[in-house]
Design a protein that fits this description.
Elements (H helix, E strand, L loop, with lengths): L5 E2 L5 E2 L20 H8 L8 H24 L12 H12 L7 H11 L6 H34 L8 H9 L21
Helix pairs in contact: 3-6, 4-5, 5-6
Keywords: Membrane, Transmembrane, Transmembrane helix
Organism: Frondihabitans cladoniiphilus
Protein name: DUF3043 family protein
């Protein structure tokens, strides 16, 4: 049986025959730590111990949360969740925030319809008004989704437009402007440029 060459630190190949304790002892120069020693070295408390340490940890966590909340509200890319990241989604947010949408009136109209449905003579009319409003809001969402998709396809190419942007635009268009997250970064009428 052939002996495999052993490569020494100076990269010269030498053959070695290992018989008992005749082999050269090359090692790391210290004994291997036991499992107990390794676990003791890694041992540290998961939560802070002591009153001041707990308070400091609470303050640190509160500062991080506050920074993330403010960053999300301001639309900073690193604080946005995955569904809001990217230049195409930013364009959709800015486009929706620049226009008036029928869906923005959904909550106020629903409140008015609920109150007017308490009047017995107006119940049939309020039902028709509700359904008409829902149909108009859905049509508005479909149109804005199509408009945004065509604009993004013109810039990025039809195959490079992200999936789900129409739904993203529709959901943002159905919310009141003051309730949208990330907060609106532009004023009405200031449409973004591609």
């Amino acid at each position: 049986m052939a002996k495999a060459p052993i490569v020494s630190p100076d990269n010269s190949a030498e053959t070695s025959t290992i018989k008992g304790k005749e082999a050269q002892n090359t090692g790391k120069g210290r004994p291997t730590p036991t499992r107990k020693e390794r676990e003791a070295a890694n041992l540290r408390p998961l939560v802070a111990v002591g009153k001041e340490e707990r308070k400091a940890q609470r303050d640190r966590v509160a500062d991080q949360r506050n920074r993330a909340r403010i960053g999300l509200a301001n639309g900073e890319e690193k604080f946005l969740p995955a569904r809001d990241k990217g230049p195409q989604r930013k364009y959709v947010r800015d486009y929706i925030d620049a226009r008036w949408s029928v869906g923005e009136l959904m909550i106020p109209v629903m409140v008015i319809i609920l109150i007017s449905s308490l009047i017995p003579k107006a119940q049939a009319v309020t039902l028709y008004v509700l359904w008409a409003f829902v149909v108009v809001a859905v049509v508005d969402c479909l149109l804005v989704g199509q408009r945004i998709h065509t604009k993004l396809a013109a810039k990025y190419g039809k195959e490079n437009v992200e999936r789900g942007l129409r739904w993203y635009a529709s959901m943002r268009a159905l919310q009141l402007k003051i309730m949208r997250m990330p907060k609106s970064q532009i004023k009405r009428g200031q449409y973004p440029e591609l």
